[in-house]
Specification:
Strand content: 5-15%
CATH topology: TIM Barrel
Largest sheet: 5 strands, parallel
Helix content: 40-55%
Shape: globular
Low-confidence stretches: 1-23
Number of strands: 7
Radius of gyration: 20 Å
Bound molecules: zinc ion
CATH class: Alpha Beta
CATH superfamily: Glycoside hydrolase/deacetylase
Length: 314
């Protein structure tokens, strides 16, 4: 009996040890989209509230020592004055965030003419460069991760962003934080505290199921762990729960790294031949490029989808 216990213990140790070793090397780069603030509810872009929510979010990244690369939709929050916009974006820079472009109007390349899309990028450049105070504008994130519906459009726009000095910023931990955030903001606006609590109770758990899925899928597709890239949005929900989200990642063995550092991993030079109208994780793109059978990440909970459908669309 003693021998059995001993061997059970040892086999459990050896089963866990490789995971523990791998976990200690885990890295994730945090990227935040839709600055100054995702349009996730009424009054989201009023300057006073925007400043407070931005500080609240940034304070959590600073406290957790998580470097940030953040993507600005230059035409977001159109009622902000230039000074107010500059003030809010400077808060991000003061917190150490590197700012990248996410276009001027958040156009959908799956639907838009590529020449219109390219003009929108140029318009964003013109609006952003004066705000950056001479700091470089190196990274570009496609809205909705839509890289082009045909091979020709995809190649054309990729060449265009490269010609303007941009590096495309991929995403591996793709997720639907935006859906949780929209329901949360709507519940906040209507004083539905029960729904707010429901969203808060389930958001980080949902994000963990997505992270868990992509961790396993990375091993299947790439064969080993890689520096992951998380997409999240500048919104009220993340301003309230970023600490819980970052704590979950740390509990899973992650340390935070920069997008620049993550992109040095050779995996991000791997071919990515997906062409279509879906905005999907690079893990899926690589699996399709390799001809592997499709596997989808966990869906948003049904109750959330139903609540999201109830929100009046603009
Ligand atoms: Zn976006």
């Amino acid at each position: 009996m003693k021998r059995l216990l001993c061997c059970t213990y040892l086999s459990a140790f050896f089963a866990v040890a490789p995971f523990a070793f791998a976990a200690s090397k885990r890295e994730v780069a945090i990227t935040v989209d839709d600055l100054p603030f995702a349009q996730s509810g009424p009054r989201a872009c009023g300057f006073g509230g925007l400043q407070i929510q931005t500080l609240h979010l940034l304070e959590q990244f600073l406290r957790q020592k998580a470097p940030i690369t953040a993507f600005v939709v230059a035409g977001n929050c159109p009622d902000l004055t230039d000074d107010d916009r500059r003030t809010v974006l400077k808060l991000w820079q003061d917190a150490g965030a590197e700012l990248g472009s996410h276009t001027y109007s958040h156009l959908d390349l799956s639907k838009e003419d590529p020449s219109v899309f390219e003009a929108d990028i140029v318009k964003a450049d013109g609006a952003l460069r004066p705000v950056l105070g001479g700091r470089p504008l190196r990274y570009f994130r496609y809205p909705m991760l839509h890289l082009g519906p045909t091979p020709e459009i995809k190649a054309r726009v990729a060449r265009f962003i490269a010609s303007r000095g941009y590096t495309n910023a991929p995403v591996t931990f793709d997720n639907s934080d935006w859906m949780f955030a929209n329901v949360y903001a709507s519940a906040l606006a209507t004083g539905n505290m029960e729904l707010m609590a429901h969203v808060k109770d389930e958001y980080v758990h949902y994000m963990e199921t997505v992270v868990d899925f992509f961790e396993q899928r990375t091993l299947e597709v790439v064969g080993h762990e890689i520096p992951q890239i998380l997409l999240m949005h500048a919104n009220r929900l993340n301003a309230d729960l970023a600490t819980d989200l970052l704590t979950m990642l740390k509990r899973r063995g992650y340390r935070f790294t920069t997008l620049e550092q993550a992109l040095k991993d050779p995996v991000y030079q791997s071919p990515e031949n997906y062409v279509g109208t879906n905005g999907i994780s690079w893990i899926h793109r690589w699996s399709m490029t390799k001809g592997m059978p499709d596997k989808s990440e966990p869906q948003e909970p049904r109750w959330l989808q139903l609540e999201f459908q109830k929100i009046p669309k603009e």
